Amino acid sequence: MIRVLVAEDQSAVRAGLVLILRSAPGIEVAGEAEDGQRAVDLARDLRPDVVLMDVRMPRLDGVSATRQIVAEQLADVLVLTTFDFDAYVFGALRAGAAGFLLKSAEADDLIDAVRTVARGEGIVAPAVTRRLIAEFAAASAREATVDPAVLDTLTRREREVLSCLGEGLSNAGIAEQLDMAEGTVKTHVSRLLGKLGLRSRVQAAVLARELMR
């Protein structure tokens, strides 16, 4: 059972999200939060698998809430965003969000996204993700230049996996491309995140894009 905490300040939207999630087999709504601070408090108390997090909320915004939840390893965070010119999403990714979802997504896409993040695959909707990663990498490149030497700690296989993450591939996609077992891919992803000091596979994808510029 995947336990989800829904954090959304608009009650009507939150009710709709809860209704969709409760209709899906294998998913349980563990709690609801109307602002970012409440989301952090409930994440500490309930320890859900996934927090569905709106970025624009009162008291504590979704980016700050995501940063706290990820830092304390309370749950994986799936960010809700309108995406278009939404600078908040970049902050959420820097904070370690596991993935993102457009607010305009269909019910099936919402359910699939939650399940994807719960499996440990933070990249949702590959076509949109590639665009997001490209924009985020471009923004990061204006702030600082990534030193390719950071890759020296990685094995050849880990570098190949990192490259695939930069292409927006899921674990299954990486396994197929590199002719590996999916479980082995998960191990490589976990190890390279640790070696590079990153919080999420989305951050790893951004790093890969920057290094491939």
TrEMBL record:
The modification 4-aspartylphosphate is found at D54. Residues 147-212 form the HTH luxR-type domain. Pfam families: GerE, Response_reg. Keywords: DNA-binding, Phosphoprotein, Transcription, Transcription regulation. Residues 3-118 form the Response regulatory domain. The keyword Transcription applies. This is Response regulator transcription factor. The lineage of its organism: Bacteria, Bacillati, Actinomycetota, Actinomycetes, Kitasatosporales.
